[in-house]
Amino acid sequence: MGKSVPKCLLLLAAAFLAGGPCALASQDNIAKVLAQAETGEAATQYNLGIMHYVGVGVPKNLPEAVRWFGKAAAQDYPQAIYNLGVLHARGEGFPKDDEEGRRLIGKAAEMGLAEAQKSLGDLHYLGLGVPRDPSIAARFYKKAAEQGNAPAQSNLGAMHCGGIGVTKDYAEAVSLFKKAAIQGYAPAQFNLGVARSIGQGIEADHDEAKRLFRLAAEQGYAPAAFNMGAICALDKGDFTEAVKWFEKAAKGGEPLAQMSLADCYMHGFGVDKNCDEAVKWYQLAADGGLAPAQYNLGVMRQKGYCLPLVLSGAVRFYRLAADQDYTPAQLALAVMYANGEGVEKNLQSARELLQKAADKGDKTAQANLGMMAARGEGVRRDGAEAAKWYEKAAEQGYAPAQYNLALLHETGDGVKKDMGEALRLYTLAAENEFAPAQFALGEIYRHGRGVPADKTLCARWYARAAQNGHALAQFATAYNYSVGEGVAQSGQEAFKWYEKAAAQGNAAAQYNLGYAYETGLGVEVDYFKAAQWYKAAASQDVAQAQHNLGVGYDIGHAGERDAAEAAKWYGLAALKNYAPSALNLALLYSRGDGVEKDDSKAAQYLQSAARQGSAAAQYALGSFYAEGRGVPRDYVQSYLLLNKAKNGGEEDAGRLMGLVSARMSDEELKGAKRLAEESENPVKP
Fold first, then answer.
1. Contact yes or no for 66/84 (Cβ under 8 A)
2. Exposed/middle/buried for residue 201 (C-beta within 10 Å: 0-12, 13-18, 19+)
3. I need a labelling partner for 646 at 20 to 30 A (CA). Which of 321, 329, 504, 630 fits?
4. Is 143's pLDDT higher than 60?
5. Other C-beta atoms within 10 Å of 527: how many?
6. Rounded to whole angstroms, how far apart are CA atoms 83 and 101?
7. pTM confidence score
8. How many Å apart are CA 211 and CA 227, to the nearest integer?
């Protein structure tokens, strides 16, 4: 809910008939008026015209009103001449004739009638039928004001506030507002309240300002009622009372009040949340041309909140507000053009909208223009152009721009490569709590890029980024705690940060969280939870997680033992050349456990694991070659594999080598030993 920005208002009221109907208590009085009118008394003829116009004492009769006004006007009665002018301008009792209306109103003004002078001021201020000229308007307002006409006094005061057609003079404005306010004129009371609230032309007095706003509001003056609502909400925190004033102002057609009332219904401030009421009042404010309300409706359409999600509808509302130069709408519409959401993708249109906002100094738009130049989106990729826009936004303290400009300086993209400047900009963004910059500093101190490596500073920046929700930093912080790098080792702290990173979908953290639950690292052992987190990481193609999940199903830690499910996950990891999974899957195929028994497939998976240096796989494959299981019997190949397995720590491999050696000819054994020696001591090029 935006706070009211007080300002002087120039209220140009529609022209009304001059004077009011005389109060007549009896038919005798009416008879006297008729008699006096027939004798030609102009004032009485004028009053009789008013009586017929409004239907007081006599039936309402427009032709009769016009006839009696005409008689009084023929005697140069100013009020009657003015009223005839108004009726001509309105097309009441005559064909609509603006020129004749202005002529008659002008004549009454020349005769000194204040209402006519005020109306001529309105015409010249707005340029209705005459060239717009605020200085001429001010002259007419002044003539009417000097005769005590409250609307003219208020309007002339507003012109002095803004220096429109007259010199800017707040003291004179206040003097005029006071004169009109004393007469109970609500707009003047409001404007005097504004002056009192900000100390413009008069000493600031917030209590007096509130009193004046209330006086105007109680007369139904919508801007004042809105200010009363804002005072209740923002100064007193009383939204229940605020809603009453907002509703009064909203029903009086004040767009700001309509939007504020919508805000209250949207968020449940002072009333129960009510989407229908919120939409109704936002729509009325939007129909009144209020850009923020149009923007809000766009957001609601885009997010499907209180309104059906219709992206094209969001575009329509954003465009209405953007056409009024409303920056948030320009930014939102630019994003929709850039992404092709609700409108055909058009990077040029996106750039044009961002340019408008950027030219007004909007830092977000400037940063986005920099990003488009850096990525070559809609324009030729240009690091120097990107740097120019990033710098404008960075100078306003916009952390994302400071970070992106630092990246350019670190790599020398479009600017001079300068690690010192990059470090300065990263630090500025980091101190503004921009997590990517904090993480970048952690990386810099970890690897010693442009600064001495410092594990403590590295850990400190990682931790700050982690606290700001940066998933990679949370993972890095967890790792630091798990190994005691730059911080005191703590399994519990490691678990806490793995959990936070895992919740954001960080696959490595999900794997480590599964491992923590499996091994009791910083938490009680829980195989079921371990399997859940392994599955989350496995679904993101983490081979180790797929393997561990397979093991869980294989040994019954992921629930009841399920060899088929184990084979599935082993297979996914084996496709990524993860040797332990290839070995375990080979064993399942060799036993026909969870899969159809197939020595050939078992041998294939053993070969994959053996090539990756798995001593266990080399031993098993060596036995396969010795027996001719899934592969042709080949004692030489068996001997070589068993030799590798023995060197890799497989104790039984030596015994099996002896058995295989006994089955080989002397020549085969001699050749096998030579090949084994060559593999252990390859000739260097």
1. yes
2. buried
3. 630
4. yes
5. 16
6. 9
7. 0.78
8. 11
